[in-house]
Amino acid sequence: MKKFLAILLNASRAVAFCVGGSILLVAQQASACPFCYGAKDGKSTEHMAVAIWFLFGAVMSVMGGIGAFTFKIWRHGRMPLEPHQEINEEDLDKFDE
Predict the structure, then answer these.
(1) Phi and psi dihedrals of 58, rounded to 5?
(2) Domain count of the chain?
């Protein structure tokens, strides 16, 4: 049991080191972004706005499709059955012999 805990502790230290290193590397790249400094006229700001609107449109179109499909299923479920689709009770005694 002690050996397992030692392995688990070493693995958690390695994971913590990797996560911490990744955060430091990402922070270094993000510090060079003019959008983070508040540049309102930068090209990055324009591209970011276009990307946000595009993703907003994509998400809303998917949600609209799900809503339309749900409405179609709800409406179809409330329709009465056609006469040929209704279950008719049959006299099954004629098959018993």
Answers:
(1) -65, -45
(2) 2
Count of CA atoms in the C-beta half-sphere (13 A) of 55: 6
The enclosing H or E element of 17 equals helix 2-30
Instruction: Pick 36 or 64 by higher pLDDT.
Output: 64
Verify that 24 and 43 share a domain, yes or no: no
85 vs 68, higher pLDDT: 68
Distance between CA 22 and CA 48 in Å, rounded?
23
Strands (E), 31-97: none
Phi-psi region of 33 (alpha: psi -120 to 50; beta: other; left: phi over 0): beta
**49 and 70 together in one domain:** yes
First-to-last alpha carbon distance for the chain, in angstroms, is 71
pTM of model > 0.70: no
Identify whether residues 46 and 69 lie together within a single domain.
Answer: yes
